[in-house]
């Protein structure tokens, strides 16, 4: 049975497509905010209209793009290591709403960022700092969506996670609505609901299990799990699926909603497969974590990742992240996106 599970996993890994697009041949050679909301701005034509992301998009127009991002991420995470998981979570929340379009970065009344569900998101200042530095090097050419994609990858890598090649060429959304945040999977949803959400993104059950593995790093606010600890299913008790000793620890730790708890109790700052081992021991923090070992569609994959060497998880995480970062992107062909001058502000509006 064990060999069969591993074989299934290996086959799934092999058949996940790794998107690699052709190089662009007509990239702009000068600065300018392509696709600005101003209808009289003709810089839209500076950008290619092929609706393809490219691994070499910035090679000529902003060759230091990835170097600037990596340097800034290293500077900030050296001072605050918790920013690594925060950036990864910020990308998930961006891509999981209207696609990877940097809409989560817009900061105005009624935006995704102002939604109550987004109040614990962090990393905005780091993205703004990267954008400011890049604007000095190649003004008007690098989108906030591409910056967030690169920064989350570099933060993961600097935490010991895998490195993957990003294709670029995204544009930024012009709109952001708090009501759309309801699309982001919560820690209390069941597996069927999560799978339906992932399938709507073009992702599959393997991606769900693998991307849930991001919880091998980072923390959760106790407010998100208090009902599971103190009033499970309105019983005023604790979820019986939690290991009893671990439940005792969580109850002591989470008396106050604003406290935090590591999502991986064993190796909380190491990017490894311990998350899956924890789930096998009934030590999943979020309901959606622990449900992965109960559902027959996801349990075999959890078991396989728990039992195989960590590099199996790391390699597949890289593949699934590439897929996630390509969800709902806006490119030059769409003509509805922009290159925002400031990631938190619309180009044509005062807020």
TrEMBL record:
Q: What protein is this chain from?
A: Peroxidase
- Which sequence ranges are marked TM in the entry? none
Q: Quote the record's cofactor note.
A: Binds 2 calcium ions per subunit. Binds 1 heme b (iron(II)-protoporphyrin IX) group per subunit.
* EC number per UniProt: 1.11.1.7
The active site is formed by 93
Keywords attached to this entry = Calcium, Disulfide bond, Glycoprotein, Heme, Hydrogen peroxide, Iron, Metal-binding, Oxidoreductase, Peroxidase, Secreted, Signal
Localization recorded for this chain is:
Secreted
Q: One of this protein's Pfam families, by short name?
A: peroxidase
Q: Which residues bind Ca(2+) 2?
A: 216, 264, 267, 272
**InterPro entries referenced in this protein's UniProt entry, alphabetically:** Haem_peroxidase, Haem_peroxidase_sf, Peroxidase_pln, Peroxidases_AS, Peroxidases_heam-ligand_BS, Secretory_peroxidase
Q: Which residues form the signal peptide?
A: 1-22
Which residues make up the annotated site Transition state stabilizer?
89
Cofactor(s) essential for the protein:
Ca(2+); heme b
**PROSITE patterns in UniProt:** PEROXIDASE_1 (PS00435), PEROXIDASE_2 (PS00436), PEROXIDASE_4 (PS50873)
């Amino acid at each position: 049975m064990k060999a069969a599970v591993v074989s299934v996993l290996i086959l799934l890994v092999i058949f996940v497509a790794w998107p690699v697009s052709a190089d662009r041949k007509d990239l702009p050679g000068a600065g300018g905010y392509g696709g600005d909301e101003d209808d009289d701005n003709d810089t839209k034509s500076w950008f290619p209209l092929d609706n393809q992301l490219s691994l070499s998009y910035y090679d000529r127009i902003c060759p230091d793009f990835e170097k600037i991002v990596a340097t800034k991420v290293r500077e900030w995470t050296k001072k605050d290591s918790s920013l690594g998981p925060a950036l990864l979570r910020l990308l998930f929340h961006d891509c999981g709403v209207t696609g990877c379009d940097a809409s989560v970065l817009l900061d105005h009344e009624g935006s995704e960022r102002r939604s109550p569900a987004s109040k614990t998101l962090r990393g905005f200042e780091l993205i703004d700092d990267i954008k400011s530095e890049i604007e000095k090097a190649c003004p008007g050419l690098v989108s906030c969506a591409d910056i967030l994609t690169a920064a989350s990858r570099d933060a993961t890598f600097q935490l010991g996670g895998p490195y993957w090649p990003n294709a670029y060429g995204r544009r930024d959304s012009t709109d952001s609505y708090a009501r759309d945040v309801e699309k982001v999977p919560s820690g209390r949803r069941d597996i069927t609901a999560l799978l339906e959400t992932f399938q709507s993104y073009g992702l599959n059950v393997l991606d769900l299990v693998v991307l849930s593995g991001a919880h091998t790093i980072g923390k959760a606010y106790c407010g998100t799990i208090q009902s599971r600890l103190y009033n499970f299913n309105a019983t005023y008790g604790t979820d019986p699926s939690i290991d009893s000793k671990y439940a005792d620890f969580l109850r002591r730790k989470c008396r106050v909603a604003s406290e935090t708890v590591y999502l991986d109790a064993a190796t909380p700052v190491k990017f490894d497969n311990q998350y899956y081992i924890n789930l096998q021991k009934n030590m999943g923090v979020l309901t959606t974590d622990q449900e992965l070992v109960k559902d027959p569609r996801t349990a075999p994959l959890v078991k396989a990742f728990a039992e195989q060497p960590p590099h199996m998880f790391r390699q597949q995480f890289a593949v699934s992240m590439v897929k996630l970062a390509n969800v709902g992107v806006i490119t030059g062909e769409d003509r509805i996106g922009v290159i925002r001058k400031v990631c938190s502000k619309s180009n044509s509006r005062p807020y």
